[in-house]
Amino acid sequence: MSAPILYTNPMSRGRTARWMLEEVGTDYETVIVDFESKSALGDINPMGKVPTLVHRSTVVTETAAICAYLADAFAYAGLAPPLDSALRGDYYRWLFFAAGPLEAAATNRALGVEVTPDREGMVGYGTLGRTLDTLDAALTQSEHLVGSAFTAADLYVGAHLAWGMRFGTIERRPAFEAVVERNAARPAAIRAAELDDALLPAQAG
């Protein structure tokens, strides 16, 4: 079986994809993509974006999709509920909640985009406050978003929260900080961060 190939950059969302690869515990190849030339991607991803994953001749883009794909492709890692589990609904809900409403709301905040009350229904998330309240309520009720086990949904949502709180697009709340703290202590997260951090000097130069 061919090992996955991750096209990434240590200063990108590719850090989340690498963390996911470390969580599933598979061997994989890393190709560093320079933001300026993007030549390493070739025709693999016409958007010229990282992360991009190639596995068994399948190209997967978008970080949430990569996490979901890897959880299913390496099901032995237990990072997704079984296909016939009732928890699958919660799993999809929170993966796409983070990829949709949370990212859109946080990005608009970072860009200074203000949505007037009469247009809130058009943007898909309503308001940033409502989006954060919804996530906060779920994380306050339980340590995990899906049942009683850590899944790719916890990983992806936690990565969003860590990034957003670091750069000020997501306000710090106790439930959010607890998630980030727990995630950062996971051995796979530590390994992934060390691998990407080791590449930063070369990229910065």
From the structure above, extract its key features:
205 residues, alpha+beta, four-stranded mixed β-sheet, 4 strands, globular
Describe the structure.
- The protein is α+β, with helices and mostly antiparallel strands and about 200 residues long.
- The protein has 2 domains: about 80 residues, Glutaredoxin, CATH 3.40.30; about 100 residues, Glutathione S-transferase Yfyf (Class Pi), Chain A, domain 2, CATH 1.20.1050.
- It has a 4-stranded mixed β-sheet with strand order 2-1-3-4, with helices on one face.
- Helix 1 links the parallel strand 1 and strand 2.
- Helix 1 runs parallel beside helix 2 and helix 1 runs antiparallel to helix 7.
- The longest helix has 24 residues.
- The radius of gyration is 17 Å and the shape is globular.
- The model has no long low-confidence stretch (mean pLDDT about 95).
Can you give the mean pLDDT? 94
Distinct helical segment count: 7
How many structural domains? 2
Order of helices and strands: EHEEEHHHHHH
Instruction: Give the CATH class of the largest domain.
Output: Mainly Alpha
CATH architecture of the largest domain: Up-down Bundle
* Spatial shape: globular
Radius of gyration: 17 Å
Low-confidence stretches: none
Approximate helicity band:
40-55%
Strand order of the largest sheet: 2-1-3-4
Structural classification: alpha+beta
**Beta-sheet strand percentage?**
5-15%
Give the tally of β-strands. 4
Question: What would the CATH topology of the largest domain be?
Answer: Glutathione S-transferase Yfyf (Class Pi), Chain A, domain 2
